C-alpha cells in the first residue's frame, strides 16, 4: 500500500519535478519529516492547483523554520536603506531652506555647515544605521533651530527688520535714478545718492545678522533707507531745485513769523510804501509790508487798504533786529553745490545809524558782514564807461569829479560784492551778495542778528535770494526790482512793475492805488498806480498832528522833493524812451532823473483826461499823450525825449516840477517801459 502511494505521488509530479526533488534530497542533510495524514476537504476546489507548494521535509529537503540570520540581515538592510532615503530627502531641502536665511548670515552659515556635515554622512557607504539616523536628526535639529533663531531675531528687532526690508526694496531704483543724473546740475545729487547706495550695499551685504560682529544699528539703517526712499519719491523735485539754483535763483520772501522779537507794534496803519528815501525817526515796529489802497466806497477822496492783499506784492522789510535774542531766520532746500550765493536788498533806516549785521549758516559760528564804502559793485564793470574797476568814492572826497563818479557807481548799480558790501544809505537800495560755504545737501537754515556787545543796529533787509553761481546776478536784480526784458536774446527794452519791485518813496502819503474803472474795464483785472508823487496835498488829510489809530505822518516831504525812486536794469548803454500808463484829470508833468551821467534827466507833460476815470498811456518815442518836452540838462531842450541809461542797474528818481508857478504834483503812474533808441532812430533824429 505504501509503495502504491509513492508511485502514485511520483506519477502526479512528473519526471521533471521528480528530478528536482531528487537533487534537493541529495544536497539536503536534514532529517526527513513524515507527511501528515491527509484530511478530506469538505469543499474541494473544482480545479486543482497545477503548481502546488512543495511540502516541507521528506524528499524536498526544505527547512521548516526559514527565519534565522538571513531574514534578520535583510531587515537591517532595509532599515538602513530607509534611513538613507530619509536623509537624502532632507538634504534635498538645502537650497530652499538656506535661501530663507540670505539676510541672516550667521544663521545661514550655521545651517549650511549642518547640511555639509549631513551630506558627508550620507556619502559614507560604510556608515551604520545609527550614524545615518544621527546625521538626519542633527540636520533636522539645525533646520528647526534656524527657523527658531530667525523668528526670535525678528521679534527682538522688529524696527530693524522693517527698516532693512524697506531698504532692500528702495535700492532697486539705483540704476534708474543714477542714469537720470548725468547733467552737470545734478552732480551733488548723484554724488550723494552714490554714497548712500554704497552704504546700503554695505548694510545688505553684512545682512541683518552678520556672520561676525554686531548687528546693524537700527538708526543707521533708517538714515540710509530714509535718504534713498526720499530720493525715490522726490528726485524730480531735487532736480528742479538744482536747476533753479544753477540757472536762476531760489527766492525766500520775508516771513514775519520767522522774526523773533519783543516788538509787538504793527507797522503804521496809513503806510503803503514802507520803504522810504528819508529818515524814519520815530519807529517802534520791526517789520513792514507794502500795502495797496483803494477809494473808500462813497468817498472818492478817502482811501482804505484793500481787504484782501493776497499775493499782489511780496515787497517787505525787516526794520530792526534790536533787542536780546532778536533774530530772523529762514530755511531753504539745496540740492545743488556746496557753495552758494546769498543776495538781499538792504538800506539804512536813518542816516545816523551805525550798522552791523551777522549771519549764521546752520550750526556754524556767526559771520559778520563787512559794510564798507570802498566796495566794488559786481555789475559796475559793465556799467562803467571807464576802466571797469572804478571804486565808489569815500564820503570825505567832495571834488565834483569824484561826486559824479560816486553817484554814477551808486546809481548804475547798488549791488555789493560778496567779500565786502557797500555801506548802507537811506536814499538807496543796495543788494548784498554773500558767499555761502559748506551748504548741506537738503535743508539749510540762515539766521540774521546783530553782533552782541556793540552799540549798533541792523540795516533794513528785504527778501532773500540763493543761487549756486554768481552768473545769475542780473536775474536776481531783475526780480528784486521787478524788471522784465522784452526778450532774452538782444533785449532792447525793460519794463518796471512798480507794485512788485522794491522802490522808495520820500513821503508817507505816496501810495499804491488800485484803479479798475476805466471805460468799463474788467474790474477783475485792475491796474495798479502810484499816487501822490510831488505836490503838496496829504493823503486822507493826514498831518503831523494826527497820530491816533497807529497813523504816522512822517516822513513828510512836499513838492519836487516828494519823489519816487525806482531801479532800471538796462540791457545796454544808450538813450531810452519812456512809456507808461497814467491817470490825471488835468495836465501834469513828470521828471525822470538818473545820476549815472551828470544832470541827466527828461521832463515832459502828459495830457489830462478831464476826469479821474480814464486811463491814459504816454510814450516819449512818438509823443503819445505828451503835451510838451522839457529839458535834459541846464535848461536845454531835450530834443530826443530820452534818458541816458548805462548797462546794469540805474537808480531813477521820479518827481514833478513847477507848472505856472504851482506844483500840482505828478499824475498817478503805472508800470514803466524803457526802450532803447536804435541807431537808425538816432540818425533820423539828427
TrEMBL record:
Residues 249-677 form the Haemagglutinin Mycoplasma domain. Residues 1-22 form the signal peptide. Residues 409-420 have a biased composition (Low complexity). Residues 33-55 have a biased composition (Pro residues). Residues 28-73, 372-420 are annotated as: Disordered. Keywords: Lipoprotein, Signal. Residues 372-383, 391-402 have a biased composition (Polar residues). It comes from the Bacteria. Residues 58-71 have a biased composition (Gly residues). The keyword Lipoprotein applies. This is Variably expressed lipoprotein and hemagglutinin (VlhA) family protein. It comes from Mycoplasmoides gallisepticum WI01_2001.043-13-2P. The lineage of its organism: Bacteria, Bacillati, Mycoplasmatota, Mycoplasmoidales, Mycoplasmoidaceae.
